[in-house]
Amino acid sequence: MTRPAIVSDPVLRVSMAILAAGALVVALKLAQDIFAPLMLAIVVGVIFSPLADRMERLGLPRGAVALLLIVAIFFAAAALAFMVEPYITTVIDRLPSIKYELRKLMFEYRGLIQGLGEVNREVEQAFGQGATEGDMADMPSMTDAIFLAPVIVAQMLIFLGGLFFFLLTRSDIYRWMSTRIGSGSDTPVILERFCAAEHTVSRYFAAISVINAGLGLAVGAALIAIGVPGAVVWGIAAALLNFVLYLGPASVAAGLLLSGIVNFDGLMSFAPMAIFLALNLTEAQFVTPGLVGKHMRINPFLIFVSLVFWLWLWGPLGGIVAIPVTLILLRLFDILGDRPNGRTTLRAA
């Protein structure tokens, strides 16, 4: 008995795989309010899985472990928000003066801008006399906040619920997926790959978290030394945004340039940005390759493509999950291979 053509014909199989992948991407894009927090919950659950295993080995029930980790994450986020809130309030209060400094800067350097008359008119409208009466006009209104609040609350509930149930049942999920993907003797191998992917992502984020914390401390201390207002917030921002490759450091550099223009004169205006770029380049070129590169080497182009795709798909949240999802997929498809010395490198095709 011949097999159906849809199975035996490689062209049809490839075509169906492409159509299925396209449908999946469209579904992820359209339902990002649901899938994005769920994916983040899975990534966070994978990152904290070694800690959860250790807590279970101490005799704690799996449900209690999941609940304790969620409570700890919630209070850590709340403590961070409480610490940063005074600085954010100060920045909001200073928005009128920041706009004035930007308008002043545009007028000082308007002679260097040629052929951008339309842009200049738009800038004058944004920072001109009409803006002084409503400097906060571009801030979200109360109505916007009221309509946005339910969406944020729903995403938070999806994230917390997804994180709890993933931590509670992740072993069962791995076994179920291994039996569905593999068959017979392949099932233990696939299950081992799931565990290896979990270990790889957790180890990577443990190393990156330590590196980013050190970067944040260095940036904050350096900015305090030169008298930048809100240096503590800039240090925290440098540490957190460094998890989003490329885009995060670029955002911090742009913000520090603006802060330097507002708070300093002359060449000193570029000092905050220059300090951050020097520290960030040191971290990227020496510290991270020294600590992470010994265990994990992935093609930078692959990382860049993954980052661009996930940023397009889900915005900043996609930038956070891009690297973990890439590492998980590489490990599951056995693209990352372990050498005898324990290093993990990208296999050549």
TrEMBL record:
GO terms for cellular component: membrane. It is found in: Membrane. InterPro entries: AI-2E-like. Keywords: Membrane, Transmembrane, Transmembrane helix. One of its GO terms (biological process) is transmembrane transport. The chain crosses the membrane at residues 12-28, 34-52, 64-84, 145-168, 204-226, 232-257, 264-281, 301-330. Its main location: membrane. It is a multi-pass membrane protein. The keyword Transmembrane applies. Belongs to the autoinducer-2 exporter (AI-2E) (TC 2.A.86) family. This is Putative permease. It comes from Salipiger abyssi.
